[in-house]
Amino acid sequence: MKKTVRDIEVKGKKALVRCDFNVPMQDGKITDDIRITSALPTIKYLIENGARVILMSHMGRPKGEAKMEYTLKPVAERLAELLGQEVIFSSVPEVVNQQVIDTAASLKDGQVMLLENVRFRGEETKNEAGFAKELAQLGDLFVNDAFGTAHRAHCSTAGVADYLPAVSGFLIEKEVKFLGDALENPERPFVAIMGGAKVGDKIPVIENLLKKVDTLIIGGGMSYTFFKAMGLEIGTSILDEESIELAGELLKKAEAAGVNMILPTDVVCAKEFDNNSEKLTCERTEIPADRMGMDIGPKTIERIRGELSKAKTVVWNGPMGVFEMPNFAEGTKQVGAALAESDAATIIGGGDSAAAVEQFGYADKMTHISTGGGASLEFLEGKVLPGIAVLEEKE
Ligand code: ADP
Ligand code: MG
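That is the input. Now the predicted structure with magnesium ion docked in place:
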């Protein structure tokens, strides 16, 4: 278990906090502030317990240049509104200079400042010691609360921990608890549902999950690569040519591990990748040469619902079909509904899966929706995330 802000004395300390304020922006305005509101519990805890709070984050990909369209100033303003107190914004393009050092040193207990976008410095993403030291000298301790970048070893996510005591904030604590418990200590039956389009990226995840789950359900665009590995004809369905062999090996591994592997038995096809294209529901063995699979079929939905009704822990990554098109959203919607009704621990990882759950109105029925797309995938893959590895262990 990693130490959190609760496990150390923060009163009067300068807490250098890495947040994920990489919010979507349009015309200089924040279009969705969920990442800012998600960071509030940690920031408020620090304020209430008398810390001097120095926040840092990246936004977008300014690639080491001070491109002002990526300034964090709008974040400072929104955060001040949400906290109901001043947030001192240091609009210094080099992120750290003497003025910033002086401001940080003069903070009083409970005051908050936000540094400029750490990716204005090219050293940030290379985790160069020089910039990590510059950042570290501002604080007395490091708090990492940015799960979305925890899979990257950058100055502000990992490097600073070489110079400061390092603990997690509440967001990372929550992610590690839910994802970690599911993997290490799941209540069984433990079911994983994998879908979406990026088979190549997800094969390592499937490989790791095979060692842990009782049942593995595969749906969405990745099914067709598995069908191909089984020798089926898949028409014009999405295919990851390079992953066919690995998919075949995974099928064998699943069998050897005694995992109940469920692939769609029927699919909903279309001639074009278009919501208005004529729908055809067929067995997976009968996909016409000129059609592509767009969703799982009704029999498959029933089968999956049956499995999910018995599950006690479910991890879901990747939609069951092209859910952005209403005519091909049924499979994804039904899986969401099954999870919403279930009393199992339900954990959603992946940007599009989270968006789907949100879109269908099931978000507040899930146990945990991970905030980090890439980071949650690497976690499920069993990798050690650098931004978490640097944090101190509880005694
Ligand atoms: P996540 O972000 O949840 O990890 P992915 O990014 O891997 O998921 O995949 C999401 C995308 O997969 C969605 O845009 C969805 O439209 C697409 N998809 C799902 N099923 C199919 C399919 N049968 N054919 C083509 N694309 C699909
Ligand atoms: Mg995605």
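Residues 350-352 surround magnesium ion (ligand 2) (CB under 6 Å).
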